[in-house]
Amino acid sequence: MFKMTWTKSPFENSMKITKLIPLPEHQIEFEWSHEATVPEKPGCYALVTFSGEVLYVGLATKSIRSRFCEHLKTAAKRKCGPTGAPFWCYYTIREASEVGVIERGWMNQAILEDGDIPPLNKIYSPI
After folding, report:
1. What is the dihedral of CA 68, 69, 71, 76, to 10 degrees?
2. β partners of residue 58
3. Nearest CA-CA partner of 49 in 10, 21, 83
4. β-pair type (88-93, 54-60)
5. Where in the chain are the domains?
6. How many other C-beta atoms can be found within 10 angstroms of the C-beta atom of residue 25?
7. How far apart are CA 104 and CA 87, in angstroms?
8. Does residue 111 come out as left (phi exceeding 0), alpha (psi in the -120 to 50 range) or beta?
9. 3-state DSSP helix/strand/coil percent for the chain, to nearest 5?
10. Which of 25, 48, 59, 88 is the most buried (most CB within 10 A)?
């Protein structure tokens, strides 16, 4: 008697941006040319592939723009991995007191969906 089990491949990342709650209200390309349009306000954000797969979720207690730039400076956050490369940055502006709860919720959603944190959350980024 055999029992079949299915394990997700590291090439499968099914957490889609459309599944995040609360859904981020803003979307911008993850490129230096768009840095000036990212707000210098607190909030939560997600780095996402062109097709909408969540690669990273994060929070900014002071400036989403500052975190956006730190990620652009981190080569490992820009390069293409098994699940793709970040193409979009989705974000939601919130009070600094709210961002920890939202980011933790997004992280928990990814863990429930994929069985692990988003792939780029495993890479160190300076703050």
Report:
1. 140
2. 45
3. 83
4. unpaired
5. 17-122
6. 10
7. 23
8. alpha
9. 35, 20, 45
10. 48
From residue 31, alpha-carbon distances to 9, 15, 27, 73, 117 in Å are: 29, 22, 12, 11, 24
Q: For 61-75, how does the pLDDT look when each residue is reduced to its tens digit (9 = 90+)? A: 999 999 999 999 998
Phi and psi for 88 in degrees, rounded to 5? -115, 150
Asked: is 17-122 a CATH 3.40.1440.10 domain? The reply is: yes
Q: Do the Cβ atoms of 102 and 44 come closer than 8 Å? A: yes
Summarised one tens digit per residue, pLDDT across range 75-117 is 888 888 888 999 999 999 999 999 999 999 999 999 999 999 9
The whole-angstrom separation of Cα 20 and Cα 30 is 19
Residue type, 78: R
CA dist., res. 113 & res. 17, Å (int): 12
Rg (CA), the chain: 15
